[in-house]
Amino acid sequence: MSTNPHILVIFGSTRQGRRGEVVANWLMDRLALRTDATYEFIDLRDISLPFFDSPTLPVYGHLAPEAERWAAQVERADGFIFVTPEYNYGYPAVLKNAIDHLYLQWVHKPAAIVNYGGFSAGYRVAEQLRLVLIELKMVPIREQVGISLVPGVVPNVSDKPDSPSGAFLDRALEKMVNELLWWAAVLIPARERDRQDQD
Ligand SMILES: Cc1cc2nc3c(=O)[nH]c(=O)nc-3n(C[C@H](O)[C@H](O)[C@H](O)COP(=O)(O)O)c2cc1C
Q1: Which of the listed residues 88, 125, 147 should we mutate to test ligand 1's pocket, taking the one with most ligand atoms within 8 A of CB?
Q2: pLDDT 10s digits, 104-120
Q3: Which CATH code is given to the segment(s) 6-198?
Q4: Would you give the DSSP letter of residue 117?
């Protein structure tokens, strides 16, 4: 049986003509080179949740029927990488909605952020998202990857891996994933202990 952590990569843009696919593809290509975890890609287009309007709260374990498959996917994960654009300094509503549909499935798991955007490379969305993740008792990690989609602004996914900016991006990603997996390894047995205590 594999003891490698299972990491869900959650892509937060669903708009038509989204440009973030180059970022998501770059990330999954890089993660495919690693053997220290399993990495599953989740496109929120495929999850297609309704706007959250349940009369009962996910924090008490209640799920909307449409969210049950989503809940099972998040439940199986030992950690997350959110790939998110910056919309007006914040996260896309569709990403927040997917987060809000669940609660217990997120708890005591680490989360990393790959943010992208204009000149700012989307760094402000990560600041806001971290606050949300803390409320869900997740462990948002410090290391992150920021990517600008403005041509000529570095770092950019079109930079060659052997160029200084391409190498910088790869190094930033490696540090981020290493830290994510460090926390995943710490928290897997801790959650297991909690489960045993509840039995
Ligand atoms: C509604 C909206 C708001 C945006 N706000 C910001 C912003 O605050 N900061 C930024 O760097 N880019 C901003 N942008 C530019 C996006 O980062 C850019 O369009 C990017 O391609 C969005 O990702 P997507 O194409 O994968 O959806 C915004 C784009 C949209 C559509």
Answers
A1: 88
A2: 999 999 999 999 999 89
A3: 3.40.50.360
A4: E
